[in-house]
């Protein structure tokens, strides 16, 4: 994938300028070890009065995907997520844009998945379901930790 | 969700299409009888072919038993379905009785083949072949007469 | 030498892996009722699957992205979700049919009622998806599936009049006793069986699993352009076997046992044993592929970790999906629904769902942003567009024809 890496031009100031909807939304996020993290379900955008709007963070989870899906299904997604989440007021997963290493057909992070928790708040939203599935079901089945043979 | 409703309607329609309806008139009853005869003939021919291959040693015992049983089940369900079709008038009653008799002969022949094949009794299988041939011929004749 | 072996392995597994329960049943049913008058559909279907499998393999090798990753990017969350639900439903139906097929194949071997075998078949499939490496799984079932070549051998031993056979295939006519709607209904079923959407999910995700890169593209093309047409020939031999043996005797195929009878007739017990091995390998291989495809599709849509290149704890949600699908398949099959009927519906619904998969693939394969220099050429695009028209027509016509013909009766 080296040929297609970093096709998004970087400005001299170190900032990117591009169509965020096309480049970021609904893209796969991959961590520094090559593991799949999540999909970009929504963006957190800062709109200062004097400067053009800036993408501050990637958001993920049913809490933000629901409203984008819309309709009955979207509301149902959000309601289920709120109901099943351990927190009383769950927040969507949030990945600060500073953690992005480069962007090609996917968004590559500069850090491994398990460090996202300490680097950001609202980490439950990123891996909550995965952790639940692992601890309650998959991790209990013999051979779960072995690589396939 | 309108698409969901559409799918539900389509599924309901498909389910209903699979059900047997009462035949309201002569031609429709004859058509149903003809379809029944063709389907039954197909099962009888399957049992015939399987028995023949078993006699010739071309077929594993288990394979033959499973195939014959499947056809026997199918045949009995075909006969069952036909028996609940409403005949429209007296002439149809006669046709119904004839086909019922042929179907009954066919299932006797198939049962004979099943029993003989499980016992690996070649002589009985050869006899069953003759009866299967006769049943098959009758079913085909019924189908061609009506179809 | 090693390279030649690798090429051969790829081609062989593509041949052996081409046929699944849908192809086995549909080709035999069609052969027994329509002779070779629908053989042209297999040819059309094989060309189609070649074009689109090559495209999705290329997309996977160049971008490293699976199909549903791209579907969501192109269609957004709402359209993507509708597509996901439709595609996963069809793939699940196929998965159920394949597991039922394994049980039916073992019933023919053992004589034990297939319902008793369903839980074991499902457990075996799950265990393979849980523990066995992707490439071992593909190679084993692909190579074992080659034993279906016995159908081609059987055709040769049955010694048909080749000229007449070709004549009938080249000038298709609806046989006596069958209507035009039924003919077209089975044409669509056959098309759906050859082009089943899961093959595309599986092929592209498999490319990512095996870490294909641009360098592997030539190998991938060889697999597709040699393996799939030869696999299509296997499908055709199953059809011709049924046309030669079953049709003249007035037998309409509706069980897996009937599918193998022509082989027994031509080649006896040994030939039939090969056919049975082929049934088991084809259904097992396809059950694994469809089971994985369900997991791939959903996980890619949500961006979850997926794949067999990591241990199950590192892709817990993906493995949870596979586990749930397997349990669902067992539950559905234990209702005593006829697996052959499930198969017949699955191929028709596959035809209905075809545009859902093929349209996004065609769009992405044309996107220089993803594909760089490997973007679709003119030929690929021309054929791709032509097929998009064909499969849209097939998709729209499938359900009305199902209603008119009462599902092909």
Short précis:
Chain A is α+β, with helices and mostly antiparallel strands and 149 residues long. Chain A has helices at 20-23, 62-69, 71-84, 116-119, 124-136, and strands at residues 28-30, 36-39, 42-46, 54-60, 93-96, 100-103, 107-109.
Q: Kindly give the count of domains of chain C.
A: 1
| CATH architecture classification of chain C | Orthogonal Bundle
CATH architectural category of chain A: Roll
Summed up, the domain count of chain A is 1
SS elements, strand count of chain C: 0
Distance between the termini of chain A: 27 Å
**What class would the helix/strand composition of chain C place it in?**
mainly alpha
> What gap, in angstroms, lies between the N and C termini of chain C?
53 Å
Mean pLDDT of chain C: 93
CATH-defined superfamily of chain C: Hydantoin permease
Shape of chain A: globular
Q: What share of the residues of chain A lie within helices?
A: 25-40%
Q: Which descriptor suits the 3D outline of chain C?
A: globular
Descriptive overview:
The complex is a heterotrimer of chains A (149), B (147) and C (409). Helix content of chain A is 29%, strand content 20%. Chain A has helices at residues 20-23, 62-69, 71-84, 116-119, 124-136, and strands at residues 28-30, 36-39, 42-46, 54-60, 93-96, 100-103, 107-109. Chain A has a four-stranded mixed beta sheet with strand order 2-1-7-6, with no helix packed on it. A three-stranded antiparallel beta sheet of chain A has the order 3-4-5. In chain A, α2 runs antiparallel to α3. Chain B has 147 residues and is mainly alpha-helical. Chain B has five helices and no strands. Chain B has helices spanning 2-17, 26-55, 61-83, 90-119, 122-146. Chain C has helices spanning 2-16, 21-34, 39-63, 67-110, 114-131, 134-145, 150-158, 162-170, 180-194, 198-209, 217-245, 256-302, 316-333, 339-365, 368-371, 378-404. In chain C, α3 packs across α14. Chain C is globular and about 55 Å long. The interface between A and C is large, with 41 and 43 residues.
